[in-house]
Amino acid sequence: MRISTSQFQRTSLNSILDQQSKLNDTQQQLSTGKRILTPSDDPTASALLVDINQSIQVYQQYSQNASKAESRLQLEESTLSAVANTLQRVRELAVLANNDTYSQQDLQGIAVEARALQEELLGLANTKDADNDFLFSGFKGQIRPFEQLGGGLGVPATFNYNGDQGQRLVRIGPERQVADSDSGYEIFNKVPDPAVPGGYISAFEAVDRFAAALETGTVTGIDIENIDAALNRALQFQAGVGSRLNAITSQRSVNEDYIHQMTTTRSDLEDLDFADAVSRMNLQMTGLNAAQQTFTKVQGLSLFNYL
Amino acid sequence: MADLLNIGTSGLMAYQHALTTTSHNISNVNTEGYSRQTVELAARRAEYAGFGFIGTGVDASNVKRNYNDFLGEQVRKQTSSLGSFDAFHTLTAQIDNLLADPTAGLTPVMEEFFNASQLVSDSPSSIPARQVMLSSANSFSDRFHYIDQRLRDLNGRANKQLEVSVQEINSLATNIAKMNEEIARARGASGGKDPNDLLDRRDLLLKQLSQMVSVSTVEQDDGQVNVFIGSGQGLVVGTTTTNLAVVADELIPDRRQVAIQANGASVNISNLLNGGQVGGTLDFINNILIGSRNALGRVAVGITEELNSQHALGLDLNGNLGTDLFTAQTPQVLVDGGNAAIGQPLTAYVDSTQLTTEDYQLEFDGAAWNLRNYRTGQPIPWTAGTGTAVDPYIVDGISIDLSAIAGAAAGDRFLIRPTSEAASRFGVLLDDPARIAAAGALNGQEVVDANGMPLNAGSGRLNGVTPLDDTNLPLPAPVFMTYDAIAQQFNVVGAVPATIPYVPGVDDNLQQSITVGGMPITFSFSGTPQTGDTFTVDNNSNAVADNRNMLALASKQTEGTLIYGSTSFQGAYGQMISSVGTQTQQASVNMDATSTLLRQAEVAHEQTSGVNLDEEAANLLRFQQAYQATAQVITTANQLFQTLLQAF
Description:
Strand order of the largest sheet of chain B: 13-20-15-16-17
Number of strands of chain B: 29
Radius of gyration of chain B: 41 Å
Distance between the termini of chain A: 24 Å
Oligomer: heterodimer
Structural class of chain A: mainly alpha
Shape of chain A: rod-shaped
Strand order of the largest sheet of chain A: 1-2
Helix content of chain B: 40-55%
Number of helices of chain A: 7
Strand content of chain A: 5-15%
Shape of chain B: elongated
Number of strands of chain A: 6
């Protein structure tokens, strides 16, 4: 076969250029640590990577949401725990006052503490969260949920609830939402009235009636039952919050497992097998070297040298 | 003796020619397009000398050009293919690289935006969280503009390249016509002998031409070649040429096409051209660039439509219904300058999940308006509608109202581009963080007394009150639903239907629906209500801590919102990346394969036509020896003559 001189040269040169370009790719892979440099290197994996990156980021956001919900629920739990302690103390006072051994003057003393506890309870029910929203006003975050109208020594007061029944949900997993609050309506107002079937008494009314009864010296067993009902309601919601906190913890570990798994998949898809790449690079360097050496050797051959 | 001298002289002359040609070969070893030449020797006519024919020497009968038309044609074909794949790959790879960049792509800003909306859903009353959401929406829109701008830059570059290539084609065509003229003249003057070096130069011009566009050639008897492009349009016929020109697409002004100028008219032959840089560039413009911009625009339309309609279902911090978060858009309509009709169609998006990445040509045939795919020419039937204002045509997620067009004549056309400009026009309309509508528009509650104390005796609950559209927001009056435990149903006041059956323990959390003035509202009941227990659905108010609408808006990130509900915004963008990636990869594979084929064709061609210096060196020796030997003939003749003279 005839080979033209320029063809001969071009072929040798092309083989050097080819080797160089392959070496360049490998070198770029090694310096970035990535197997896929542009989507065209592996279009399917590239599209998959977009999905995986989104999944990872979405799950990270779920975990962030979970932290936010957790801190609000922790605030609710500690507030409800304080509410329960306050009601517990009121109940102790009611049990004491229901004892015939106390004089009218003693009862007045207890009434002062009961009023103070009533104030405290109202304060707790009007707690604000980290965003400066009222914790127990439902969706109406900037509306003070509970207010006391009227009342006085021996006179029962009226309590208004100005919030709504809204309960906020936070997304902590793809199919998992958790309530990050309860409305004050549910906790404090929807206390079943032990005396009236189907009727309701608010926690504030329960305490207020007891204090007024103390002031007028007419404490009865009903007062204790009312306070018990309010306390039970608070404890019930406290337990609910606790179980939601547990749910968040378990969902968070599910999320972290998923993120871990996706990160591994991502790494499998896009990361470079260094051992393979390094040995490939050595091979390519040897190839380039050989191509360069043969080029210089072969180019020296010419019949004209002998003329 | 004279014979001997004549024969010697003929040999000297012939080998001088052979040596000259060999030297010519050697000096042109690196000349592009040069074909090796050989002198063909032929014995002179012998003379009859009575006893037989006596030879009379040698003649150089012809200088042959070692060239094989078929192999030359192969090289041109592969050069065209490679030129096309190369131009296509170079341009497509730029989109590939743009999309690959993890920091410059759409993905990070989209994630940032949806993250920010989730943060607002975590803290709906927080102004800083809302501010972050607005700024991330702005970066989102900046990124749309940036990517679209880069794609448009690439369009500009491709247009420029087309112009350069077409100029090159015109100048090559002119040169080929000139060579045709010279070759015909030289052949005429030499009595039909080939002017080898002129032929080489013309073949080189043809090869350069085929790098620009696929050509076919037909050689005439006088040695001229006619050059055809496309489906047989004559570029060079003998010594005359036809000019190509780059023209704007008839309906898309920033798209360049190639036209041939024949008989004073310019005819678009873009879809007939293939191969070469022109073919590859046109392929890129028509099949990658427009599609990519449309795909990007489709994500922009999807985001705008989906999020705006969700946003409209919520209340902002001031208690007002959500207004457009992103600037509302309509499908772009381009009018053909030659239309007889006055006015243009009115278009709107009706369902962004149905959008495609195609452009549509709307054409009047004299009786009816027909739609076809502008890229492929495929007719598209209307899905629904009659084209009027109240009942517009519906197709692929857009509506087309033709009522504003008057005086249409057959052949009038419009181009409807549903998504192509959407990315560049994507914009954030809202600038006040308080106006982000995070709260739900409606609230479902139990009835309470004046002090907010419960009135319902049962444990029934009303959950998840959600309006499905905003056609009747805010509600004109609250809806009341009162339970009847005997009939096991809710009696509804202020909405239809009038009753909703509900069996406690069976229908718990079953999705229920009512409509108020045609606006559907969904919800569910749970628990055991007692007779007389009443629930209300009413406008939400003061709901600064409500996040329901933002929760719904944020979850659009992962919902199937595009391509018939099959994929998310991100997924559609991912498909665009993988589609461009696949095409780039294919072009690169084709380029490699064609390079190999071109090399093989070149090797085959060079086998015949290329100069091998060793061979020429050997020829040099061979012809030198022959020359020297022939010179000896003259010496011998001289000696013989001297011998003869001395005899006297």
